[in-house]
Amino acid sequence: MTPPMIRVVIADDQALLRGSFRLLVDNEPDMTVVGEADTGLSAVSVVDREKPDVVLMDIRMPELDGIEATRRLPGTRVLILTTFDLDEYVYGALRAGASGFLLKDTPPVELLSAIRVVAAGDALLAPSVTRRLIAEFARQPEHNEPRGLELLTTREREVLTLVAKGLSNNEIMDTLHISPGTAKTHIGNLLSKLHARDRAQLVIAAYESGLVQAR
After folding, report:
1. pLDDT tens figures, 64-82
2. Residues 6 or more apart from 211 whose CB is under 8 A from it?
3. pLDDT for res 21
4. Residue 106: is its pLDDT beyond 90?
5. Which domain holds residue 92?
6. Do residue 30 and residue 95 come from a single domain?
């Protein structure tokens, strides 16, 4: 059975970049571009109309920046693309609900992989976006204590701590000596109990709660 196509919207104010991204995505057998936008406002409109699986969203755009556009698209999986590797953009993108953050000079194969990761419901951060940045973000004064922390079992707290430290499911399995199915179940329970959309939000919750401390 052929898997469904990943439907992508590209939002960037530079026509050349939009064209390059479209060629890259449309050349993949499992992806298709269903819309483009050159401003933040038009991005919100196109996404509302097309209901894509993933949005490639530029940070700096006319009328509305990519962070505010992301904030206006709750439930949409947004992969932020920018030329600026600055903490404020990371914080803003994660706070707005983005599922991924990559620099525009990311190699094409990694960008395509990122689209698939985000489409599958996981989160992805550029290698340059370190846990130090996420920890610093979580210490910002406007954060709230995450809901649902009191519902976690001892084992789920252990898994959350490992997720916040950047471990993959396989690494969590090896560390806790549990099966793949058990690791997946724990992650699913964490997402549900903490009202988190993906792993990025689990990491934020772990730091906000004090379960993991910034170094």
Report:
1. 999 999 999 988 999 998 8
2. 149, 157, 160, 161, 164
3. 95
4. no
5. 6-129
6. yes
